[in-house]
Amino acid sequence: MKLARRMGELSHAGDTVSAVCHIVQRDGSTRFVNSINRLVAPTGEGDIIQKLVLDITEHVEIERALVKISYEDALTHLFNRSRFRRDLEGTVKILAHFPTAPRPAVRCGYSSSSVTSR
After folding, report:
1. Residues 25, 75: one domain?
2. How does pLDDT run along the chain (118 residues), one tens digit per residue?
3. In a domain, 108, yes or no
4. Cα dihedral value 24, 25, 29, 30, nearest 10
5. Which end of the chain has fewer CB atoms within 10 angstroms, the N or the C?
6. Domain residue limits at 73
7. pTM of the model
């Protein structure tokens, strides 16, 4: 669907569009491809389009793994401070669009009653 919309953007010779497509194969495995399409010449009988399809599955998988390890502790598999901050900022942006919505109770740090001195 995304690729079909992008192909509609080709109107003049030399115009190029690309789209990353997620393909689920019959065996259930998935592939990611980058489809690069260039309008060579519009003709009365139909357009001449040059198409290049690149398998970028390995690139996408590596990128996802890098994102995961940048936000997750390798030993505990818990989210780190960067992920917490990203999620908190996203929540604040969402709540800004709904000023009358109830706010969640958030407590960060220690309260004086939970810290005892020796």
Report:
1. no
2. 577 888 888 888 899 999 999 999 999 999 999 999 999 998 878 888 899 999 999 999 999 999 888 888 878 888 888 888 888 898 888 888 887 777 666 555 544 444 444 4
3. no
4. -40
5. C
6. 57-98
7. 0.58
